[in-house]
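Title: Comparing notes on inverse folding

I've been comparing how different people in this forum approach sequence design from structure. To keep things fair, I'm posting one structure and asking everyone to reply with a full sequence. Here's the target:
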């Protein structure tokens, strides 16, 4: 009916909204203060449904009664319609109660909602904190992979070898044992962001210790040492630098992890009883990263001094086997064929 009268839905909706809720038409200024001028019907003319029925829509010089093309009925509807990417969405928000793990609760909710049959065109998406954690996890995974690849390329270039860098990179895997052990012992939650940053930074420190050890062993072999003697001598010589590097790093991270700090204001005022503060707010944020680096570095340092030399001592048979498969075998095969054709 409204279309036959030349009215649009927007015209009708704007008229009703202006009559009831009002519309800003101008601004009244007093000094530096501004007040909005809102035009709408008087309160006595917008109290009941009958008042709405008396409204008219002005169109091309004519006032058309609302009842001429519309009926008013009582029904239910949405208070507001939210859209995301041009699609209607209904957002349900919830927080985990104190003492409960948010990820565990989310997994339980997802498991229960899998049995829900949704009508065609409907879907459930888990966003918010879980979506942010997934994005952070994907980013840190890519960053960790890129970091390992760059470290491997640099090692291959410097050592002019492929097997030695892989032996050095094994220390990164060994450090993950310490990270998981530390999180279990200290009962620290695995934070995607800070624990992931700790693992990435740990890779560079652990690889540095292995480089110091393997480089000196390789240098001794170039000087004429037998492999076993070079490994023993290299382990004895590089033991102190490797251990001192790990100890100084661990000691430097303990205040950050435990939240130990010194209140210099109280120190200058002579309040020596409360100068040392333990368990500050910073430890809640930096704690997972510190635990990952401290435990990963401690365990990896011990295993680097034991496992890495053992792996280095076994690479020669592996190198010979790979050389035979990829080089000698095909070289001999081509040589025999060339001799047969000749």
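Reply #1:
Here's my take.
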């Amino acid at each position: 009916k409204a279309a036959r009268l030349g009215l649009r839905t927007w015209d009708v909706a704007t008229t009703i909204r202006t009559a009831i809720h009002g519309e800003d038409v101008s601004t009244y200024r007093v000094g530096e203060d501004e007040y909005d001028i809102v035009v709408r019907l008087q309160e006595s003319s917008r109290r009941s449904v009958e008042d709405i029925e008396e409204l008219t829509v002005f169109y091309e010089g004519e006032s058309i009664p609302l009842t001429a093309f519309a009926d008013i009925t009582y029904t239910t509807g949405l208070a507001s319609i939210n859209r995301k990417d041009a699609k209607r969405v209904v957002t349900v928000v919830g927080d985990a109660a104190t003492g409960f793990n948010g990820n565990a609760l989310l997994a339980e909710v997802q498991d229960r909602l899998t049995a829900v049959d949704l009508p065609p065109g409907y879907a459930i998406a888990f966003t918010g904190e879980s979506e942010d954690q997934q994005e952070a996890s994907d980013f840190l995974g890519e960053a960790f992979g890129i970091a390992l690849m760059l470290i491997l390329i640099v090692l291959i270039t410097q050592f002019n070898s492929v097997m030695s860098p892989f032996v050095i990179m094994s220390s990164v895997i060994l450090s993950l044992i310490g990270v998981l052990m530390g999180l279990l012992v200290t009962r620290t939650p695995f934070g995607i962001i800070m624990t992931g940053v700790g693992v990435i930074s740990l890779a560079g420190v652990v690889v540095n210790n292995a480089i110091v050890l393997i480089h000196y062993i390789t240098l001794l072999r170039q000087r004429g040492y037998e492999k076993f003697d070079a490994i023993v001598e290299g382990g004895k010589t590089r033991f102190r630098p490797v251990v001192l590097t790990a100890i100084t790093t661990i000691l430097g991270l303990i205040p950050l992890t435990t939240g130990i700090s010194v209140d210099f204001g109280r120190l200058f005022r002579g309040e020596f009883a409360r100068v040392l503060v333990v368990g500050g707010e910073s430890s809640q944020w930096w704690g997972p990263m510190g635990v990952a680096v401290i435990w990963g570095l401690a365990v990896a340092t011990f295993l680097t001094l034991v496992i890495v030399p053992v792996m280095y001592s076994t690479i020669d048979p592996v190198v010979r086997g790979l050389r035979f498969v990829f080089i000698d075998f095909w070289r001999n095969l081509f040589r025999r064929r060339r001799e047969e054709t000749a």
